[in-house]
Amino acid sequence: MSVSSSRKITLILGAELEKLVTLPLIWLTLLGTFILNLVLAVAFTSAGLQGAAGTQSILKIGLASMVYLQAGFIILGILATCSEYTGGQIRTTLTTIPWRGFQLSTKYLALAIVTIPMAFIIAASGVLSAFIMMRDTALVIEIDAVIKPLAGATGYLTLTTLLSAAIGALLRRTTPALVILLGHYFIVSPLLRDFLSSIKNYFPDTAGYYMYMPPSSDEINVLTPMQGTGVLMVWTLIFITVAIVFYRKRDA
Amino acid sequence: MLTINNLVKRRGTQEILSGISFKARPGRVTGFLGPNGAGKSSTLRILLGLDRATSGSALINGKPFAELHNPLATVGAALDGFGAHRMRTGRAHLRWIALASGLSRSRVEEVLEIVGLTDVAGKRIGNYSLGMGRRLGMAAALLGDPKILVLDEPVNGLDPEGIRWIRTFLRERAESGNTVLLSSHLMGELEETVDDVVIINHGKIVADGTLEEVIGNHSTLEEAFFALMSENSGNTA
Description:
The complex is a heterodimer of chains A (252) and B (237). In chain A, 77% of the residues lie in helices and 0% in strands. Chain A is built from ten helices and no strands. In chain A, helix 4 packs antiparallel against helix 6 (100-133). Chain B contains nine helices and nine strands. In chain B, helix 4 packs across helix 5. Helices cover 38% and strands 25% of the residues of chain B. Chains A and B meet through helix 1 and helix 5 of A and helix 3 of B.
């Protein structure tokens, strides 16, 4: 790759990062998700305090809010791509950066750069609040046992954000993208799990669940964290690829 | 130099552009005139790489838009609407564009000064008036100090002072050797600004020449325009 191309990547990545950080909705979504997660973590911990003890319980209770907190990251992903279509910004984007595949790929990279630390902080805040409330039951927390699920939770939230961004780029409109994604994650997928139990582990959300949740002995057909990561990554890459193909071919 | 060659655009069964050709030359302001829905915006969108042509070409200095090495420094474009997210500030909008092209933040302040938006640059774009939005679009078009300007209805929504400013500004740009292509449906305005005129109706070019050539025996551009429109609709009927 020539020097000018690598400089171009740096410039465009800078511009895509600037777009994300100067959009107040992005920060409101992240702040709202952070607060909601803390409230849920405290509620789950209070409810699960009786009889629970040890690092595993702290993790399970601290990460129980993931199901709800992922909504914030779905919204984040959709906003990142659909905001291009507000006020005709897409025209400015494409007359400034007409290399479409390259531009959209850089947007995903910028989104991942913003999402990874935020996902880690938010997931960790849930576990930390569970630990603070349950410290009488586990005086020493095993760092190793905590870091892996937290890394898994960060990866899950980041991949979910990118998957949502890809679907946002395909649909180009915020409301339909929100209805489809939130409808899938909160209504369709939980319902289908009962009917399609043989393939439920290959849904992006159920596969992703195994990235961070320590396995219980009463569960069968579980995936390892690596298998879960693999399945969710395949879903994300498929949707990112389809979104880029359509983005390159369609009229803006 | 902008070269539109035999451009065809179909959407479904509808033919929006039926093989149009014209040029916009350096040192001239070219007015692209036509009623609403005639195909002006579609032509400009294809020229700027936003839409795909069904066939034919629209080239900038011999190249399609997407093949330009540094688009912002080659073509400044302002299409209809603000072209910006309403929740961002005017300054933040210009800053990301500047960043993408490796331009400095001081250049952002310069163009804000040129278009007279310095005082409101920190406000959200959603609070801008239509005229302020047009000025912001012009600021974005001027960021890279390009030799070519492509403007869709640039005076739409501007107050008399703004209209006068843009007229003087475009004339100065052309006189210093730059290419200016602007679309408009405001004939009186166009007559005072342009050197060359291209008239489009129902996706076909119905007149193309210097302002004097297109006006011909008519007293104004407006009269020439309506004469051409009735001739054209007579032909199609």
